[in-house]
Design goal:
Elements: E1 4-10, E2 13-18, E3 21-26, H1 30-40, E4 45-49, H2 62-70, E5 74-76, H3 81-100, H4 111-131, E6 137-141, H5 148-155, E7 160-164, H6 172-175, H7 181-188, E8 193-196, H8 199-213, E9 216-218, E10 221-224, E11 227-233, H9 240-252, H10 260-271, E12 276-283, H11 290-303, E13 311-318, H12 325-345, E14 353-357, H13 362-371, E15 374-377, H14 386-393, E16 401-405, E17 418-420, H15 425-437, H16 440-456, H17 459-481, H18 487-499, E18 503-508, H19 527-537, E19 542-547, H20 552-559, E20 565-568, E21 573-575, E22 582-583, H21 592-605, E23 610-613, E24 617-621, H22 627-644, E25 650-654, E26 658-663, H23 668-676, E27 683-688, H24 694-699, E28 705-709, E29 718-720, H25 723-733
Parallel strand pairs: 1-4, 1-6, 4-5, 6-7, 7-8, 8-11, 12-13, 12-15, 13-14, 15-16, 16-17, 18-19, 18-27, 19-20, 27-28, 28-29
Antiparallel strand pairs: 2-3, 9-10, 10-11, 20-21, 21-22, 23-24, 24-26, 25-26
The structure holds the ligand O=P(O)(O)OC[C@H]1O[C@H](O[C@H]2O[C@H](CO)[C@@H](O)[C@H](O)[C@H]2O)[C@H](O)[C@@H](O)[C@@H]1O and uridine-5'-diphosphate.
Length: about 725
């Protein structure tokens, strides 16, 4: 097991140079604060941006910079100020951040900053490649580095790569507006495991992958050519012990040991013992809803005037991304709002809002958390919001009320808090009222549950879960690879084939010999395929059967003149040596009158779907339908049909974007077994791609070489990645 390489834009510390000397200050923001705890306890290296541009660093200080970072287990990626502008202040925070937080109107789509984003992602990938060995694990973090997984994968196909997104993944309707949406998805799919904070973000991502890349998704696996990518949700926790113990220590402080801030907070408590302190802490970011919170506070004071002079709101707004115009505007808006509210409501002995625009050291954070009766955290959108968790962790006596926005990822796990929609002032004002008046016992009950969960699923557990899931995914991949039809395995199969006396090849058509097309009639054979099938049919002592679910008219047109052997409609019809099709099974089709209207009603209600009518079966195709909607309708149809056909001898086959209703005693396994019974074959091969081919894989004799096209679960013994490879393999039989 190799080392772990953590990679993120923000390192655990930010370097500053003043008067020729370097200082390292802790980074603010959930990614850095949370990952810091994970990093400190392991032998990982952390690669990221130091916070200084190349232009900021005098040549003579360069070695000291590396040394200062190495003390924190970190190493840097060098960025020029133009790169920081285009990559960080540009594409990351003027395009992706607003878009992924549903601020579509703030998103700028500039080709120039996209190009810088790509180039800088390449720089980060190169920094990993420089340090990584094949048995290392690379853990890439966040939206600034979404192209890195694929860039590393290209150069190191076997390395283990995890990616975690710390912000929301927006719904498809929002994500689709990004001009470079496919590139971003493909970048992420370079990872083996992609993690999100919540199931909602995960399903939005999967929906975009299905719709924009057309990839097959089964549960939380994405099937991409030769790889399976796992997607899952891992809600990030906090270093619970660090916060709860700091709070316990804090209680022991004598007055002299207390910070200035704590003394100021104490004065407040002393002067107005029955007044409540409400705390709001965020980076100054429009996604955090600070301006809205101020308006809601004003609304509260007007709705419940009895609380004037009885509540005080402390706003800690941490400076963030101040080169981005939207953040500058927000700063102005917040300053003005606070000025106005304080102007309107202040009395001689009371200012309703205390405002701090800065970041504070850890000990002051603990002062604020432990002194506040209520934490009011109502982002408009937030990937997780760790502050909410930190506040609860510091409540050593279990009192305190958390008012949390439904739009924060943490709301999913913090049901015992007062959850509000930040846009609903009425509800928010009532929540503040409820928080002020909540009996102590109820506060304790709620926090007891919250603390139990936060203590159990802490940041260490979160990181371990992610890493074990990544490891499992790699092992699963390796197990899968053990079934791949490698060159070595193929040569064994070819030897057996050559040494056999009487040989049989069963070949499925769609998805095996030919690719899919939205219109099945357009997926006809090409010249290369005819040439291949001619060559196979010319082989000595070898019989070849095309085994398909297709109707006999289509195969008559495509293949009868070639005199290929064919089994169609899953085994209803057979044609041998160019003879007309004859029935292999005695089946009826009078049931179709009952089923057809049901399928027609589904076609009417499912745009893009259509019915294919065969002699003895009906198929409902939904390849052209929106994938989520198609699957939903397919499930619905399955339920309707299952009850409808309960007394008939019919079954429903769920194929690749098609549902087919046919006689139960017809399937490819039974049909191929009948043909096989006509001779004494000592080599049999069956190859197919979908569910209907599993009948062959299961029913043919154990010695059969069964090959699945694709990576989905199968009864076949071997798998092949794609159609192109199928053709190459079959060509080898003719050499
Ligand atoms: O690095 P910055 O541009 O200064 O921004 C600070 C971080 O903000 C974002 O934090 C997110 O991660 C938290 C932990 O998972 C989560 O609780 C929060 O909801 C997110 O907004 C950003 O994702 C990080 O990359 C930044 O470093
Ligand atoms: O002055 C401050 C204020 C906040 N924080 C930390 O910044 C993080 C904020 O993370 P959160 O997930 O709430 O939001 P983000 O800023 O990452 O969007 C939390 O761990 C806080 O403890 C900090 O280090 N110094």
């Amino acid at each position: 097991m190799g080392k772990t390489i953590i990679i993120s834009n923000r390192l655990p510390v930010q370097l500053q140079i003043s008067n020729g000397s370097i200082s390292a200050i802790p980074s603010v923001g959930g990614l850095a604060t949370g990952m810091k705890s994970v990093h400190s306890g392991s032998d990982s290296i952390w690669i990221g941006w130091s916070g200084l541009t190349d232009e900021d660093i005098p040549k003579e200080l360069a070695p000291q910079i590396d040394k200062a970072l190495a003390e924190h287990g970190s190493s840097k990626v060098n960025l020029t100020s133009d790169e920081v502008d285009g990559f960080y202040f540009g594409f990351s925070n003027r395009t992706i951040w607003p878009l992924f937080h549903y601020f579509l109107e703030y998103s700028e789509f500039e080709l120039e900053s996209w190009n810088v984003y790509k180039a800088v992602n390449q720089k980060f990938a190169d920094a990993i490649l420089e340090k990584a060995e094949d048995d290392d694990t690379v853990w890439v973090h966040d939206y600034q580095l979404m192209l890195v997984p694929q860039m590393v994968r290209e150069k190191r196909p076997n390395i283990s790569i995890g990616f975690f997104l710390h912000i929301p993944f927006p719904s498809f309707e929002i994500f689709r507006t990004l001009p470079w949406r496919e590139e971003v998805l493909e970048g992420l799919l370079g990872a083996d495991l992609i993690g999100f904070h919540t199931y909602d973000y995960e399903r939005h991502f999967l929906s975009s992958v299905r719709r924009l890349l057309g990839l097959e998704v089964s549960f939380n696996d994405i099937y991409q050519d030769k790889r399976i990518i796992k997607v899952d949700s891992f809600p990030m926790g906090i270093d619970y012990k660090k916060f709860s113990e700091a709070a316990k220590e804090h209680e022991k402080n004598t007055t002299e040991q207390q910070s200035d801030l704590q003394q100021r907070l104490n004065n407040h408590k002393r002067s107005t013992p029955d007044a409540k302190l409400i705390l709001s802490i965020d980076r100054l970011d429009y996604s955090k809803g600070i301006a809205k919170r101020l308006n809601a506070f004003e609304y509260f004071l007007n709705k419940y005037p009895q609380y004037k002079e009885k509540v005080r709101l402390i706003i800690l707004a941490v400076p963030s991304r101040s080169n981005v115009p939207q953040y500058q505007l927000l700063k102005k808006e917040v300053d003005e709002l606070i000025g106005r509210i304080n102007g309107d409501f202040s009395t001689v002995s009371w200012t309703p809002i205390w405002y701090f625009y800065r970041s504070v050291p850890f000990e002051n954070l603990i002062d604020l958390y432990t002194s506040s009766d209520i934490a009011w955290l109502t982002p408009l959108r937030d990937g997780m919001n760790l502050v909410a968790k930190e506040y609860v962790a510091t409540r050593t006596d279990k009192t305190g009320v958390l008012i949390l926005s439904e739009m924060a990822g943490s709301a999913n796990e913090m049901n015992e808090s007062l959850l509000v929609n930040p846009n609903n002032f009425e509800q928010t004002a009532d929540a503040i009222y409820e928080a002020i008046n909540m009996p102590k016992e109820e506060q304790i009950d709620r926090n007891t549950e919250l603390q139990k969960r936060l203590e159990r699923y802490n940041v260490e557990r979160w990181a371990n879960d992610f890493m074990s899931s990544l490891k499992e995914q790699k092992e699963r991949d390796a197990a899968n690879v053990s079934k791949r039809l490698t060159e070595h395995r193929l040569s064994v199969v070819l030897d057996d084939f050559k040494n056999a006396k009487k040989k049989m090849l069963f070949l499925d058509y769609d998805g095996t010999l030919s690719g899919f097309h939205a219109d099945p009639q357009k997926a006809g054979p090409d010249e290369e395929l005819y040439a291949l099938l001619d060559a196979l049919n010319a082989l000595k002592d070898t019989e070849v059967y095309l085994v398909s679910g297709r109707d006999k008219e289509t195969f008559t047109k495509w293949f009868l003149p070639k005199k290929y052997n064919m089994i169609v409609e899953h085994g209803v019809w057979i044609s041998q040596n160019g003879e007309d099709f004859r029935m292999l099974e005695n089946v009826k089709n009078d049931w179709m009158e009952k089923i057809r209207p049901v399928l027609e009603s589904f076609v009417d209600r499912t745009p893009g779907s259509f019915i294919e009518e065969k002699n003895y079966s009906l198929a409902w195709h939904y390849r052209k339908t929106d994938p989520d909607f198609g699957n939903l309708r397919a499930n619905e149809l399955n339920t309707v049909l299952t009850s409808l056909i309960a007394n008939d001898d019919l079954s429903v086959l769920n194929g690749n974007k098609v549902m087919e209703i046919k006689s139960s005693n017809v399937n490819k396994g039974r049909a191929t077994m009948r043909v096989l019974g006509e001779g004494d074959y000592d080599f049999v091969l069956a190859i197919g791609d979908d569910w209907t081919d599993e009948f062959m894989f299961q029913e043919l004799p154990e010695s059969t070489v069964t090959i699945k096209v694709g990576r989905q679960n199968t009864h076949a013994k071997l798998f092949i990645d794609d159609i192109k490879y199928v053709r190459n393999v079959l060509k080898r039989f003719t050499d």
